[in-house]
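>> received
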Amino acid sequence: MEKFLFLWATQRNVQKDIVYQTNFPANTQEIEGMMPEEIIFACYGAYVKKYEEAPADYDKVYVYADETNLEEIKKRFPKNKGYSNLIVLKSDSYLKNFGPITPNVQLFADLWNLEDWYAKEFLTALKQKMSKIRKSLFKFFDKK
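>> returned
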């Protein structure tokens, strides 16, 4: 499974899935708090929401949204010039089945593709979490 995950990560292109980006004058927690309920948190915010910790400070919010939610996001976060700190990615029809936070495999592939210096910190921490989960599963199945 690990080989498949790395293969997917190397083929993933986050940039091609960007459907909207803007600069919004607020910190990441405020931006995340203003998101419509139907979005799916990705990348740094997804990690923080899932594990309740941040391996590094981050200054960008990534979310997945479908076309129906994109207009609401544009209303709440109008287009502004400057450093893009809100990036909206096109959601596929299956992603919403996993809830409001991307699953670890999607999170891994997305983090792998980001160029921010802190992406590596998040990716390293995620790999450690995934390794612990895998070890726990093996222990569970070994007992049966």
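>> Confidence is low (pLDDT under 50) at residues 137-141.
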